[in-house]
Design brief:
With about 80 residues, this protein is mainly α. It has three helices and no strands. The longest helix has 28 residues. It is flat and about 45 Å long.
């Protein structure tokens, strides 16, 4: 299915920004909660795995081909 790019209205943009802020706040709170219960190394490892999962899911969701150059960039960005 092709996703059509549309410009959001001012109201839609406002609610998207609010939702983004709420999700980021929840992410930060969860991150601190996990960090208080596990070691720093475990937390860092989980954070790297989160990035890998996000890259894989978004590549699948948007049907983006991953070339060897992309893989190199991902490896550099994760390290």
């Amino acid at each position: 299915a092709k996703i059509l790019a549309t410009t959001p209205t001012t109201g839609q943009l406002f609610w998207q920004i609010v939702l983004n802020g709420m999700c980021y706040c929840a992410y930060n709170q969860t991150s601190f909660m996990v960090l208080s219960r596990v070691s720093f190394v475990t937390h860092a490892t989980l954070n790297v795995m989160r990035r890998v999962v996000i890259i894989c899911v978004t590549s699948w969701w948007f049907s983006t081909a991953v070339t060897s150059m992309n893989v190199l960039g991902i490896i550099l960005a994760i390290d």
